[in-house]
Amino acid sequence: MPHLTRSPQLPETDPASDRVSETDRATEEAEGRTPDEGSAEPAASAPAKDRGAGGAVRGWHDRHPAVARVLARTATVLSAALVLFALLLPDQLSGLTPGQFARIPVEGIAGAALLLVLPPKARRVAAVFAGVTLGLLTVLNFLDMGFYSVLARPFDPVLDWGLFGDAESFLRDSAGEAGAIGAVIGVLVLVVALLVLMTLAVVRLSRVISRHSAAATGTTLLLGTSWVAVTALGMQIAGVPVSSRNVAELVGSRVDQVRADLKDERAFAEAAAGDAFHDTPPDRLLTGLRGKDVIFTFIESYGRSAVEDPKIAPGVDAVLADGTRRLRKAGFSTRSAWLTSPTAGGGSWLAHSTLMSGLWINNQQRYRTVTSSDRLSLTGAFRRTGAWRTVGIMPGVTRSWPEGTFYGLDHVYDSRNLGYRGPKFSWSTMPDQYSLSAFERLQHGKPGGKPLMSEIILTSSHNPWAPLPKMIGWNEVGDGSVYNAIQKAGKNPTEVWRDPAQVPVEYGHAIQYSLRSLISYVEKYGNKNTVLVFLGDHQPVPAVTGEHASRDVPVAIVAHDPAVLKRISDWGWQTGLKPGPKAPVWRMDAFRTRFLTSYGPHPGSAASTPAR
Question: Which segments cross the bilayer (predicted)?
Answer without folding.
Answer: 70-89, 101-118, 125-143, 180-203, 215-235
